[in-house]
Amino acid sequence: MKIGGLNIKRRVYSALNADPSKDRVSLVVTVVMIALIGLNLFAIILDSVRSIDNAWGYLFRAFEFICVATFSVEYLARIWSCTASPEYRHPVSGRLRFALRPLMLIDLFSIVPFYFSFATSNLLYLRLLRTLRVVRVARLNRYSSAMRLLAKVVREKREELVVTFGIALLILIMSSCLMYEIENYAQPDKFSDIPSTMWWSICTLTTVGYGDIYPVTPLGKLIAAFVSVLGIGLFAIPAGIIGAAFVEQLKKRDAHARCPHCGELLGSEIK
C-alpha cells in the first residue's frame, strides 16, 4: 500500500526500529513508550498500597488498559511491518523468526498476563499474573542504547561469565556439604540437611549474613571466615569482566563515531 509514493509498511518499520537520533518519528515513539513503561511501573508500585488502591484503583485499571492496548498495537505493528526488512521478507517464516527474537518475546510476555487474567478467577493465579506485569520494565532494553550496549557486553563475555558462575556454584555446593558435616551434630535444627545449609552458604558468599543461621563450632567458624573472604573476591570477578568489556565497547563505539558536520571519523585523530 502506498500513499504519495511512501510505502506505509516501510515507514512503520522504520518508525519502530530506526535510530531515534536520525528519525524524528522514531524519537517520538521511543519517548512515548519509555514514558508509558515508567508510568506503568510507578502505577504498579502505588497499586500495591491498599489505601491508594481502594481510592484510585479504577484509575490504575484504566491506565493499565491504555498501556496494554498501546503495547499490543505496537507489537502487532512490529509483526506486520517486519517483512519490509529483507531479512524477514517472507510473510510467514520471516514473521515467525522476527517474533522469536528475544526483545519480541519480552514484548509478548509483558502483555500476555493481562489477557490471561480474563480467563481465570483463581485469586492466586490472578496475583501471579498481576506480578508478571513488572516484566514490562524489561521493554526499556529496546529503547535504551545503554541497556543494549550492556546486553551486547554480556553476550560477548558470556563464556567467561558462565565459567565464573560455574565456579561460584561449585564453591557453594562444596561449602554447604562441608558445613553440613561440621555443624549438623551441634545444630541439627539449623543445619538439618545440605539444601538448608545452602541458604547459609549463599548468605555468606554474598556477604549478606542475615544471622538466622550461623556456625557455633570452632571449626565451623573457621570455615565460615574462609568462605566469607572467598565470597568477596569471587563476586568481584563478574563485575570486573563486565566493567572492562563495557569500557572496551565504549572505546569501539567512539572510534566509529563520525563528526555530524564533516562526516570524518572522530576516532581517527586518536593514535
Can you give me a brief rundown of this structure?
This protein has about 270 residues and is mainly alpha-helical.
General description of the model:
This protein has 271 residues and is mainly α. The chain folds into 2 domains: 2-143, Four Helix Bundle (Hemerythrin (Met), subunit A) (Up-down Bundle); 158-252, Helix Hairpins, CATH 1.10.287. It has 12 helices and 2 strands, in the order ββαααααααααααα. The chain has helices spanning 8-17, 24-47, 50-81, 93-99, 102-116, 123-131, 140-143, 145-156, 158-183, 194-205, 218-234, 236-255; strands at residues 2-3, 6-7. The protein has a two-stranded antiparallel ribbon with strand order 1-2. α3 packs across α5 (102-116) and α9 (158-183) packs across α10 (194-205). The longest helix is centred in the N-terminal third of the chain and has 32 residues, at 50-81.
